[in-house]
Amino acid sequence: MNLLQRLFPNIDDWGEIGRACVDTLLMLGGSMALTVAIGLPLGVLLYLTAPNQLRPMPKLYAVTSLLVNILRSVPFIILMIVLMPVTYVLVGTKLGIRGAIPPLVIGAAPFFARLVETALREVQQGVIEASQAMGASLWQIVRHVLLPEARGGIFAGMTVTAIALVGYTAMGGAIGSGGLGDLAYRYGYLSYKSDYMLVTVVLLIVLVQLLQMIGDRIVARFGRH
Amino acid sequence: MIRFVDVHKSYRAGGRDIPALQPFSLDIADGEVFGIIGLSGAGKSTLIRLINLLERPSGGQVFVDDVEMTALAEPALRAQRRRIGMIFQHFNLLASQTVAENVAFPIRLAGERRAAVVRPRVEELLARVGLADHADKYPSQLSGGQKQRVGIARALANRPSILLCDEATSALDPQTTASVLALLAEINRELKLTIVLITHEMDVVRRVCDRVAVLDGGAIVERGSVADVFLHPQHATTKRFVNEALPEEAVGAHVPYAQVPGRLLRLSFRGDATMTPALGRVARETGIDFNILAGRIDRIKDLPYGQLTLAMQGDRVDAALAALRQAGIEIEELPR
């Protein structure tokens, strides 16, 4: 009997753990890409349309802001169940990686949008005024001033969002989306195989640590000089 | 040429209109350095922003080079703004971009992206402001004076006809202020650029400006050539600014005039009068005696001037004063 078997008596298929890791990473990668694709423009919209900002539109801001707050206030596990019909319409299944991505994105994009909005508000008003004085259009200000100046904060927001998404994917495991959360729930919780629980928790910790490290590096490299 | 016609500005706050600038008209000529001096809250930041319409007037018209800025639609206004450079108290550089990228920024905004055009122009601009060796640094690696030089290079990038300076030296120490002002004067001379600057320091006005307007409580209370305003301030606010610009000895604030015999006079020399030994000659010819109580000899931009406070005694004081006036010296009799 080798050491692994003695330490983790219930785990007979390490390949299953490996596949669960890959599933988690796929869910994370897919949902993260879409979260950024939706949350970044949404954050810019929130920033620009807020009162006293570059394009104040009180009604649009109020509606967007309310929607974002509603989506952020629903606990993810409930959001996931509530969204099941929508998920089915969008990707044709409620289960697996594909079934997990719509609720993950709908849960994380508003969160990320708020982080983007906050990061943009950190950009000095004077820098924006200077670019207006240079004849920059709104789009030029967004593209060449706001986003580059806020990129440190935006990358930090991405890191926070990615880590939140790791938590969401684990919760998704409880209702059939697969991945490490599914493993921990089925074997660790329902079948009392605590060695499964231990391994998945350790793997999740390692994953979060890695994300934080990579995020910090990127922020240090591209943040403020 | 910048022309304000019956311009006024008020802000809406809490359902009421708060006046920021009383109706005024003002012409600023091509190639001159025009100073606007006022305390904080006097409306000078608003006034300078009316030129490139960062602030829209509540009424009246603003013309820049015969274009009515107030009538322009957004795209035309952006094009016009590219011809007006602006520098700021806190520099407002892009922290995420290098010095060279900051200077190239307005050129790129204007649609010129070819490196073969942009790069030599950036090099030329950085050389002009004395930062040729700092092209690849980031703003946070520069001193305040260097940051303002980057701001100046950036403001000049699109070859503007006007440069607006918003408290450009207020965040700098006296030596750095002097070198930045010298650079502005050099740019004004060599590029024939019109410069409008706002400041709360009379010394800045004295060193570089040709004309000045004094702003107090949203109204222009005094305006004219810097020499006239500086040597003969009329309004109380102007007097305060002028006195702040002078060392205490020059104002004579600490001299107990009451005990000094004779008539108290302030003599102002400017230009050529500064160079002639008029006072000594007149004293010899008329036999009067004088006692210098306070004085200062300096320059207003390129114009040398002197101002002396003195007590004059003797039988022929009036004749002496007439002779001094003859020699181009301005005389004010001070109350005792």
Automatic annotation (TrEMBL), chain A:
One biological process term in Gene Ontology: D-methionine transmembrane transport
Membrane topology, from the record: Multi-pass membrane protein
Xref: CDD domains: TM_PBP2 (cd06261)
Record's keyword terms, sorted: Cell membrane, Membrane, Transmembrane, Transmembrane helix, Transport
Domain ABC transmembrane type-1: 21-215
Pfam families named in the record: BPD_transp_1
Cited Gene3D superfamilies: MetI-like
InterPro entries: AA_ABC_Transporter_Permease, MetI-like, MetI-like_sf
Subcellular location: Cell membrane
Spans traversing the lipid bilayer: 25-48, 60-83, 153-176, 196-215
GO cellular component: plasma membrane
Keyword Heme listed: no
Family as reported in the entry's similarity comment: Belongs to the binding-protein-dependent transport system permease family. CysTW subfamily.
PANTHER family for the chain: ABC TRANSPORTER PERMEASE (PTHR30450), D-METHIONINE TRANSPORT SYSTEM PERMEASE PROTEIN METI-RELATED (PTHR30450:SF1)
Protein name as catalogued: ABC-type metal ion transport system permease
Species of provenance: Rhodanobacter fulvus Jip2
Taxonomic path: Bacteria, Pseudomonadati, Pseudomonadota, Gammaproteobacteria, Lysobacterales
UniProtKB/TrEMBL annotation, chain B:
Top-level taxon of the source organism: Bacteria
Record domain ABC transporter: where: 2-242
Keyword Ribonucleoprotein: no
SMART domains: AAA (SM00382), NIL (SM00930)
GO biological process: amino acid transport
Cellular location(s): Cell inner membrane
Record's keyword terms, sorted: Amino-acid transport, ATP-binding, Cell membrane, Membrane, Nucleotide-binding, Translocase, Transport
A GO molecular function held by the record: ATP hydrolysis activity
This protein's record includes keyword Membrane: yes
InterPro entries cross-referenced by the UniProt entry: AAA+_ATPase, ABC_transporter-like_ATP-bd, ABC_transporter-like_CS, ACT-like_dom_sf, MetN_ABC, MetN_ABC_transporter-like, NIL_domain, P-loop_NTPase
Predominant subcellular localization, coarse grouping: membrane
Membrane-related topology note: Peripheral membrane protein
GO cellular component: plasma membrane
Pfam families the UniProt entry points to: ABC_tran, NIL
Family the UniProt entry places it in: Belongs to the ABC transporter superfamily.
Function: Part of the ABC transporter FtsEX involved in cellular division. Important for assembly or stability of the septal ring.
PANTHER family: AMINO ACID IMPORT ATP-BINDING PROTEIN, METHIONINE IMPORT ATP-BINDING PROTEIN METN
Protein name (Swiss-Prot/TrEMBL): Cell division ATP-binding protein FtsE
Gene name tied to this protein: metN
